[in-house]
Specification:
Length: 256
């Protein structure tokens, strides 16, 4: 029968049969997909169960190792509840972890404190043993005037720290300087007198002259002139063979 109550024809029956077969094929395909999904999820569940079991095993082993380390640290700890050397890793104790005054001289190995470990100004006078410093250790610019001292031949005091042999420092020559002057280079037969003058506040104590250039030129005079300059002259012997220069120098000092 058809939907309207009339007898179904063969054409209608054949179409309905085809539709039923198509629906059945779709249902079979959906069932196959669901079976594959169930098999795949079962394998995934099995893998996850294995991973979970391995994770639990690793956690148990970590707890056992941690307990073993705790026991080792407890055995290495001294009876006075301090931290023993065996329990400390290399470079674990930094300056920021040390209380002021915690490190005493008895805790330092010989020669363990180097210059790089000492801050500027950290070593005070009271920390230096008597006669332990030499002249090479002292900055002379930090020293004050020498106090009054007794003469070996007199009981009287002598304020002569600025004197040597009883004479003031200004009585001795000091700060020597050499002053040089040169003539022009030419073939003139005679040059000079040429003067090398000392700077202001100094006096001449020595000097001299030299010839630069042609041979057969003689220095005719070379001597001090007053207290602050040296004068020299030179002249050719016969005919010069080329240009030459007269150079005069003076050695000047202060004091004396």
């Amino acid at each position: 029968m058809s939907d309207d109550g009339k007898p179904a024809s063969q054409e209608d029956l054949r179409g309905r049969l085809i539709r039923d077969e198509i629906r059945l094929a779709h249902d079979e395909e959906r069932l196959e997909q669901e079976e594959r999904w169930i098999r795949r999820n079962w394998r995934l569940a099995l893998v996850l169960s294995g991973v979970l079991a391995l994770t639990i095993l690793a956690l148990v082993l970590s707890v056992v190792a941690l307990n073993r380390d705790i026991d080792a640290v407890a055995q290495a700890q001294p009876r006075d509840a301090s931290v023993g050397t065996a329990a400390l890793q290399d470079d674990a104790v930094t300056p920021g972890k040390l209380a002021p005054g915690a490190v005493t001289p008895a805790a330092l190995a010989d020669r363990s404190v180097t210059l790089a470990a000492i801050a500027d100004g950290a070593v005070k006078s009271r920390a230096v043993a008597p006669d332990s410093l030499t002249g090479a250790d002292i900055d002379e610019g930090t020293l004050g005037a020498v106090p009054s001292a007794k003469r070996a031949t007199s009981a009287a005091t002598a304020d002569d720290a600025d004197a040597l042999g009883g004479l003031a420092a200004g009585r001795y020559v000091n700060r020597p300087v050499t002053v040089t002057t040169r003539s022009s280079t030419s073939t003139l037969e005679a040059k000079g007198p040429l003067s090398a003058a000392c700077p202001s506040g100094t006096r001449v104590v020595s000097g001299g002259a030299s010839i630069d250039g042609a041979a057969r030129v003689a220095i005719t005079t070379s001597a001090p002139d007053g207290e602050d300059e040296w004068i020299a002259s030179a002249a050719a012997i016969g005919t010069t063979s080329g240009p030459w220069t007269l150079e005069v120098y003076a050695v000047c000092v202060r004091g004396g």
